[in-house]
Amino acid sequence: MHTCKSYEQRDLDLIWHPCSQMKDYETLPPIIVDHAKGIWLYDIHGKKYLDIVSSWWANLFGHCNKEINEAIKEQLDRLEHVIFANFSHKPAIELAEVLKEITPAKNRKFHFNDNGSASVECALKMCFQFYQQGGHPEKKRFMCLTGGYHGETIGALSVGSMDLYAKLYQPMMMDNIHIKAPDCYRCPYGKTRESCQCECFIHAEKAFAAHAEETAAMIVEPLLQGSAGMRIYPPLYLKKLRRLCDAHDVKLIFDEIATGFGRTGTMFACEQADVSPDILCLSKGLTGGYLPMSVTCVSEEIYDAFYADYGQGRAFLHSHTYAGNPLGCAAALAVQKIFREQPILQTAQENADWLTKEMQHAIGSHPHVGEIRHLGLIHAVELVKAPAVKEPFDAKKRIGYAIYKKALSYGLVLRPLGDVLYFNPPLNITRKELSMAIEIMQKAMTDVLGQ
Ligand SMILES: *Cc1c(COP(=O)(O)O)cnc(C)c1O
After folding, report:
1. Which of 5, 30, 224, 264 is the most exposed place for a label (fewest CB within 10 A)?
2. Domain final residue pick, 341, 364, 380
3. Is residue 26 part of a domain?
4. Could you tell me if residue 154 is inside a domain?
5. Best probe residue, ligand 1, of 56, 114, 145, 150 (max atoms within 8 Å of C-beta)
6. In which region does residue 147 sit, left (phi positive, over 0), alpha (psi from -120 to 50) or beta (all else)?
7. Which pLDDT value is given to residue 2?
8. Ligand 1 in contact with 257 (CB < 6 A)?
9. Is the pLDDT reported for residue 164 higher than 80?
10. In the predicted model, is pLDDT for residue 88 greater than 70?
């Protein structure tokens, strides 16, 4: 029946891909991946692609990682899934025990969901309900940073950036308080990340002075606003935020869905600020990028406020069908075993330092490189029209997208964020693989932008 049609065409006949203008697929058809190993994706025509974005920031130790594959296969023959209300299983219990050891001190209860957005929704609802049943019905709003990203569901969207992904849906959303985020590349105070005192924190102070009384929680991506273009800001901001939240009785939620599990050089980004949130959201790297799972890690204070006789109506009645999926837990346990048994973070940081130098050397002096910023292995290149004044390109030119297409033709998945190119590779990527990625990036940039 399908014999005369290509897989590409059969895909486009039926499938609506995420985060895509489908018309773009007329000139860039979907790449049909047949199999993958380590950092490499292999398509059905035998071409290979270096997955420098970890398949949307999720893949942690390479594709078809032997240890993780084996753990999932073993679990599969024992228990694939079971209702998670009233029932439990060893992989979930063991995973909670491991998470207790590695997450910040405050986070002692673990609520399982099946994707990142769901864990954010869960965190928002928990904070809301905490104050509703705690005698503070006026605390029903949320604070967040401009440019933030916390997922695509309506609640998560409404604490995110009001730009590209969200603007249209505004009439559907909660009325949240968006605080001007740090913008260290274009710092309005003329400071640098290394030397500033977070002068921009004044925006948070003003917002809290005006709105803290009606606010249940503030949510941020600690240290790195991923979808905003890998914007990096100093740990001091988080320290100040923790103090401000405590002073105003506002809960603090850290969304470490992207930054968790070693991406920023430490297991969690918040460790670099030595700050515990009231709620920590984890997903993506949690299962090594294998299976959809998330965990919302909650303080005992919040958990205890829901603990009562059933008749009091304090239970958290939030569920997702695949919560606590045993296969996901088995993958997550295998990930943690790898972290324990191999010097992953140390090697990744050594390679990150090396990468910083190599990237600077290769493209640092290119006339359209505005900033190369980095945290852990994450390295982002902000391309601008005129670096001297940090003037962006006209977004309609889609410079980043043009470079992406070039890089793909050379076998590198350099999917950009606007005009920000970035590497966010698996933590066990080698220097040889990083060198190949740099070389292709440089070539694709030159093709599109000139020398
Ligand atoms: C990816 C991401 C989410 C959403 O997770 P999904 O599993 O895609 O719903 C939320 N917050 C951050 C910081 C993310 O990077």
Report:
1. 5
2. 341
3. no
4. yes
5. 150
6. left
7. 59
8. yes
9. no
10. yes
